[in-house]
Amino acid sequence: MASSELQKRKLEEYEMQLFNFHSRAVYATLENIISERIYCTIQKMCETIQKSYQLNSESVAVLKSNQKHLEKAYCKGAMPHLENIKNVVNKYVTVPSNVLLEEDKHQRTQYSDTEFQNIKQNLEDLQGRAKRATVLNAILKEELQILEQFPIVEDNVNEMCNIVKNDLKYPDINDKLHQLVENYKESASSLFGTTSITDKTKYNTADNLMCKDFDLNDLEIEEKEPSILSN
Hints:
This protein has seven helices and no strands. With 231 residues, the protein is mostly helical. The chain folds into three domains: 7-107, no CATH class; 124-152; 153-187.
């Protein structure tokens, strides 16, 4: 019973979205029109009888009682016709089962049990990833709060950036120094040949300069005794 009522409400929702009204509302409107017609007709008939026969108060009371019984009898007799009207309304207003709304067009694709399980597993994986992303986001927010407690001076950061940029302008400075040393060695070899170059040759470049090499280890240093000064 509950499932049939739920299915009926689902169909009525389709009808409402497509027609702006549903079959139950149409049937209720027709039922109200028929009931009102029955009551009005019996009311007019009783009023006509009362005026035509000039009934006394006792007869009017009996007429009113018969009026109520007559209304119930007509309403009961109209029930089979109302049921037929209801079937006709459902036939012409109900949306066919093969018609889908725009938001329900994905229902055209039917999945097997295996495909459904795979989709379910993928959904669980996505939910797990979303949960981990939420935890990571919370951790990052906490780290940002910690960093905000220890602010970095902007001038210091800019100075460090400038130092790094300046160093990057000459990335091959070591190679150039190495090449300079090699060039010096080649020049020295071409000037002095295979002769070993002494320190005297390097630093005493004046011509005909007579110099003598001394070994500091052979030099004797005289030690003088300190004199005692008398007062």
